[in-house]
Amino acid sequence: MFKNVQSWVIGLTSLFSLIVLTALAIRSDLIILDPKGPVGAIQKDLIIYSIYFMLAILIVVYALFTFIVTKYRDRKNFDKNEYKPDMHGSTKLEIIWTLIPIIIVTALSIPNAKALYELKKPPKSTADKEPIVIHATAVDWKWIFSYPDNNIETVNYVNVPEDYPILFKVTAADSMASFWIPQLGGQIYGMPGMVNELYLQADDPGVYKGRNSNFTGVGMTNQIFRFVALAEEDYQDWLKKTKKNAPELDVGTYEKLMLPETVGEMTFSSTHLEFIDHSKNSEYALNIREKYGVEVKGIRVKADSSEEDENEATISSHH
Amino acid sequence: MAQINTTNNPDTPLEYQSETGRLNIFGFWIFLGAEVALFATLFAAYFALKDGTAGGPLPIDVFDLNNTIIMTLILLISSFTSGLAIHEMRRNNVKSMIVWLVITLIFGLAFLYMEIEEFIHLVNEGANLGTNAYWSSFYLLTGTHGLHVTFGICWIVLIITQVLRRGLTPETAKKVFVSSLYWHFLDFVWIFVFTGVYLLGMVG
Amino acid sequence: MMDSRKSNPFPWMQVVGFLLSVALTFMAVWIGMRAGLPYNTIIILVFVLAFIQAAIQLFMFMHITEGAHGIWQIGKMLSAAFIAIVIVAGSVWVLNSMH
Amino acid sequence: MIDFIKENLILNDPLIVGANVSILLTLIAIVFVLTYFKKWKWLWTEWVTTVDHKKIGIMYIISALLMLFRGGVDALLMRAQLTVPNNDFLSPQHYNEIFTTHGTIMILFMAMPFLLGLMNFVVPLQIGARDVAYPYLNNLSFWSFFFGAILFNVSFVFGGSPDAGWTNYAPLAIEGSPGPGINYYLLGLQVSGIGTLLTGINFIVTIIKMRAPGMKLLRMPMFSWTTLITSFIIVFAFPILTVTLALMTFDRLFGTHFFTLTDGGNPMLWSNLFWLWGHPEVYIVVLPAFGIFSEVIATFAKKTLFGYKSMIISLVVISFLSFLVWVHHFFTMGGSAAINNVFSITTMAIAIPTGIKIFNWLGTLYKSRIQFTTAMLWALGFIPTFVIGGVTGVMLGMAAADFQYHNNYFLVAHFHYTLIAGVVFACFAGFVYWYPKMFGHKLDERLGKLSFWFFAIGFNVCFLPQFLLGFAGMPRRVYTYVPEDGWTALNVVSTIGAIGMGIGFLILVYNIHYSIRNAKKETTGDAWNGRTLEWATTTAIPPHYNFADVPEIKGIDAFWQMKQENEEKKKKTITYRPIHMPNNASTPFVMSALFFVAGFGLVFELWWLAVIGGIGIIACLLIRSIRSHKEDEGYYVTVEELKKMEQPFHKEA
Fold it and tell me: What is the DSSP string of D125-184?
């Protein structure tokens, strides 16, 4: 039976932990709920919209639950007529708690569908500006950004003008990574032999942290980059300065970048797009690793012929 | 849980007379449902990797549809003769049942022989397991089916020996019936392999 | 529960089933190779024929309706077909959309 | 050979060496105790070769508790590493191996066996059957699961564990992690998957064909219903896993190109096929949990289940929808807006039948008399906590929002809320509820409640902050973070919660030990004034044949009705007839050991070992087929034995 002290202890602890949690929540910066770009804003609005529905459901269920558990707990002065052991169902109630969830799900699906199609197009707020195309390539544990129009390439940081739509063409050389800048908007996967498009935009200047959020091995935690939004003029003279005195990107340096390690920030005044397009050729990085002796044992040399159907475990041939 | 109660009406077929018989036959149908899911996944991998043909011969150049049609007919005939064997079993003439089962085995072996022949031909054309994604999934799909046929043949041989040794009892009848279900199922799968792989492969 | 098998000597079920299956196989080959239809219609037609032939196997050769729980066996095979279509068509549809 | 062993024995990491030494010592201690008390024969005849569904159920639950301990230690190590920024308590590689084994063990080697154990023990009793349809297969299912788990766990000691997450995505799992780790994952799951598939088939046939007379399907207890529907999902989902694992095994060992980066392989095919099994799998673990809660709530509310038919309908709807939602695991992979939209709708739609079940439980509690026993506390703790999991699931189901949630701690918190609040609470509730039926005495209520409050409060303190970490942008599977990220305070609170859960688990284990010594023996089969048939056995622990004569069933709560009706019919003379029981089976154990040998051979590409294992397995199949007519004969429990077993307990219930 519920001794009084126990219910007070539980009530107090849960109240206390709720206070601690809300305090922590206010102190730590919930960047997804405080987006700095239109794409993140669409997603934030959708999230807040869904939170209202969900809170409503929670409140209804919690109220019902606490009322029932306290009112019908077995105790000495439990009056008999409250206890109906054979009450086993009511179609009226069943209909209610089937229809209402259907309504809620439809109410959530419509804005979700609208947002999905909207996210595939450049942000409306800067519809007049032509989006800058930047290729973002994930290589084991670094990000390479190529500016095809300005023939510039940077590693682990990307400079863009503020309040300007950017079209990221995300791919990867060797792994399935996820291109994600939490404060600006949702993520998209980058995979070898494929290219995914993602529109992002920073409304005001600032440095936003981007990272790979899909696990790709030991270096994944440090596969981070700086997304820097600059004022228009600063961006223009950064372009001019880089074109003038940043070193050319030759094949040798680029091949070094293909090896799996974490590197610092780099800048080049030419891009790798001239000699390799990872969204078409998914084997480039692996061949480079074999060339440099970073032998990836996981891959078998081509299995030689197999007369019998291949299921017998008699296939030898490796290395 | 094998209560042998032959209380049910006399002309229930032998294989349904024992409790284990009824349980095993029903359980085998559930197992066939699982096999459908297994082959469906192999088909999904095959159709998803249909265009991964870089660096290897195209199916349209190396497939021999007539050969495959003959293989399909052989498997259909073996399924037919297996059906006849069950028909004979239900009329209790054990000898003709075994004759039909042996014919089924012969056709099964012929099918296997032609399939291995075809694999050797394909390998000589340079399409082996590791050539590319298409041929990997081709070998896995047809190979798994081929492996099932091999397993089926050994199983039926085993059951024929048991019937010869212990005669036709509810116990052995159940085994013959379940192995024939398995054999028909192989043909059931081969229909889709023939249609999805060989026929659509030739259409290109 | 068991339809008592009339022990007539001639296995009608099996013969009809066999002839139908052979006919369906050749029809599929004809549609595929000779009829010159567009690729997508060929796929649909050929697979419809395959499903019909599969049903023949089940009902004429495999005695699916027999046993105390024949209905469950048919239900099982129908849900298996549903799952197979979801797996194959689902995977192909999803993966082809990831350009 | 020697350098092969030296090369693979992991001696460089103090934590692992310490763990290995302790494992070795416990093994030696067990062998010593068994030899000292001369129990090897007893072990072989009573447990290893048993086909009694009750013993197999208990063996499943023991291995599940062992795996829960190991998975729990993994979790605490991860929480320790993540408590403070820039922590080097664990190296990245070690952390990656830990979170991979934590995920795989908790779902496949703890949740599955715990529920299969409860299903094995309870379902035949609930439907009035003497045993499952295929006792031999049931023994094989347990041992193949067990040796699959052993093969997976050996990776910790010898050769290194898998390090690509429990989802094991290509290209990381093929090109990105050479070495035996991933092979252990692929073959360990393959071998244990066989057992689960066989159990699925076994229970469908048992439930459909072996119910007590009068127990129509619509009079079956809810836990048997969830077992039936779960078995249907198992039978369709596990073959997908078998093929998917086989495809990657061929990629890694035989040079095929299904998921490779080279020669036309498609890494996304792995994600697609993995989740085609993955999502039905999480419903395989959550549906029996719903069944357990229906039983526990109905019993301790002393009221029949509310909306029995609508519970069944929502089960069937959930089982079909569970195969249509898998793409919500990779909304961010670049699918078209149309596809993401379709799967958003199916994902949100699956929350509706789950919501119906929650309201049905509330309906059961309405106008009832609730007794707050430990099992009921776990069930009542489940309702509010699981609703948070369900509600956040709907939020995650919206693809446009999932671009922000995917792979971050909001998602981690969601699936822990559904898996722990759903499955683990149910396992503990079921364990405490059916404990007297298994071991003949109840678990101590005071300790039970204490372990509940520690575990439940610890759980919420651990995972509520993780929703906020998700909004703060902390991604999943990172082994550390920097102070500037601002995640430190929430992680510290989360670790405190995890410690609370650990203490809760320890109290539960201590409770088992304490109750063995102090709890009073149960005299009747009806420990909690139960409603369903399993409580109708004459003795506390049901005899191996379960019921001397199977009672006639007239309604849904069969035993409750029997108790109501037959106050006067107690003196009914029971006519005993010899009962036919199956023999023990020794081949499955040998066959599963050979699965282990073949699997180990494939892990290290020792082809000769793999071939030997393969031939051995086929030989066992051959032996079973040839000797099956002798083995299936079984034996008869004579009438005298029945009288002796039933008589002494025939006092008033």
Answer: HHTT-SS-S-HHHHHHHHHHHHHHHHHHHHHHHBT----STTTT-TTIIIII--SHHHHH
Q: Which amino acid is it at D83?
A: T
Please judge whether B51 and D264 are an interchain contact, meaning their C-beta atoms are less than 8 angstroms apart: yes
Whichever domain contains B149, its CATH number is: 1.20.120.80
Sole residue written with tokens 């798994």? B144
Cα of D388 vs its chain's centroid, Å: 22
DSSP-H helix ranges across D254-266: none
Dist CA A289 CA D414 (whole Å): 39
Beta carbons of D252 and D162 less than 8 angstroms apart: no
Q: How far apart are CA B67 and CA B71, in angstroms?
A: 6
Residues in contact with D422: Cβ distance below 8 Å, sequence separation at least 6, in sequence order: D285, D286, D289, D290, D382, D386, D389
Task: Over range D71-85, report the average pLDDT.
Answer: 94
Q: Are D190 and D197 in contact (CB under 8 A)?
A: no
**How far apart, in whole angstroms, are the C-alpha atoms of residue B89 and residue B15?**
10
Residue owning tokens 């076994």: D202
- D236: which chain C residues are within 8 Å (Cβ-Cβ)? 79-80, 83
Cα A16 to Cα A25: distance, rounded to the nearest angstrom: 14
Closest CA to D523 of D442, D602, D467: D442
The reply to whether residue D336 touches residue C95, judged by beta carbons under 8 angstroms, is no
Nearest residue on chain D to B30, alpha-carbon basis: D201
Contact flag B129-A306 (C-beta cutoff 8 Å):
yes
Instruction: Count up the domains in chain B and report the number.
Output: 1
* Contact check, Cβ <8 Å, C61/B48: no
Identify the sign of the CA torsion D607, D613, D614, D615.
positive
Judging contacts by C-beta atoms under 8 Å, the chain C residues touching residue D209 are 68-69
Residue-wise pLDDT for B111-163, tens only, equals 999 999 999 999 998 888 889 999 999 999 999 999 999 999 999 999 999 99
Question: What is the pLDDT confidence band of residue D477, given thresholds at 50, 70 and 90?
Answer: very high
Query: Cβ C97–D209 below 8 Å, yes or no?
Result: no
pLDDT, position B204: 64
Nearest-by-Cβ selection for B37 from D210, D240, D272 = D240
Model ipTM value = 0.91
Overall pTM surpassing 0.95 (yes/no): no
B147 touches chain A (CB under 8 A): yes
Residue of C nearest to D276 (CA): C87
Q: What is the DSSP letter of D48?
A: I
Provide the β-strand partners of residue A210.
Answer: A225
pLDDT for the residue numbered A198: 94
Residues of D with CB under 8 A from a CB of C: 208-209, 232, 236, 240, 266, 268-269, 272-273, 276, 323-324, 326-327, 333-336, 338-339
Whole-number Å distance between alpha carbons of B140 and D15:
42
Structure tokens given for D533 = 């048939």
**Block residue for tokens 């075994």:** B98
Q: Which of D444, D295, D301 is nearest to D371 (CA)?
A: D301
C92 and B48 in contact (C-beta within 8 Å)? yes
Contact B162 D626 (CB under 8 A): yes
The answer to whether the Cβ–Cβ distance between B33 and D210 falls below 8 Å is no
- The 10s digit of each residue's pLDDT in D215-258 is 889 999 999 999 999 999 999 999 999 999 999 999 999 999 99
Range of the domain at B191: 15-203
C96 touches chain D (CB under 8 A): no
Tokens found for residue D178: 């050479």
Tell me the per-residue pLDDT of D247-302, one tens digit each, with 9 for 90 and over. 999 999 999 999 998 888 899 999 999 999 999 999 999 999 999 999 999 999 98
DSSP state at residue A222: G
In terms of CA atoms, which chain D residue is nearest residue B163?
A: D626
Of the candidates D395, D448, D450, which has an alpha carbon nearest to the alpha carbon of residue D417?
D395
